[in-house]
Amino acid sequence: MGLLDKIFGSYSDKELKRISPIADQVLALEEKYAAMDDHTLQACTPAFRERLAAGESLDDILPDAFAACREAAWRVLGMKHFPVQIIGGIVLHQGRIAVM
Predict the structure, then answer these.
(1) Which residues contact 66 (CB under 8 A, 6 or more apart)?
(2) Closest CA relative to residue 71, chosen from 43, 39, 32
(3) Which of 10, 26, 50, 98 could join 88 in a cystine, given CB atoms 3.0 to 4.6 angstroms apart?
(4) How many CB atoms sit inside 10 A of residue 37's CB?
(5) What is the CA angle 89-34-46, rounded to 5?
(6) DSSP conformational letter for 9
């Protein structure tokens, strides 16, 4: 690691700073989706499609979609995505390569 990387941070550090707030949004929605019953959680998919049809972008619905997916994984598999996995998913959504 060079002196400039130590002072300004590496490319990866800068990308993590840019992506972490999105991951934090996903994690902040945990209680909202945990409070939903199964039927309401299943109804999120059509609601997301409606939001897309109304003009919202995939980036707009990403925090909600990831939070719903995380809650569904918890209910079905008994496992939740770790924050680093959420960050990896965001990177993949952006069409880039993620190494975990």
Answers:
(1) 26, 81, 86, 89, 90
(2) 32
(3) 98
(4) 8
(5) 65
(6) -
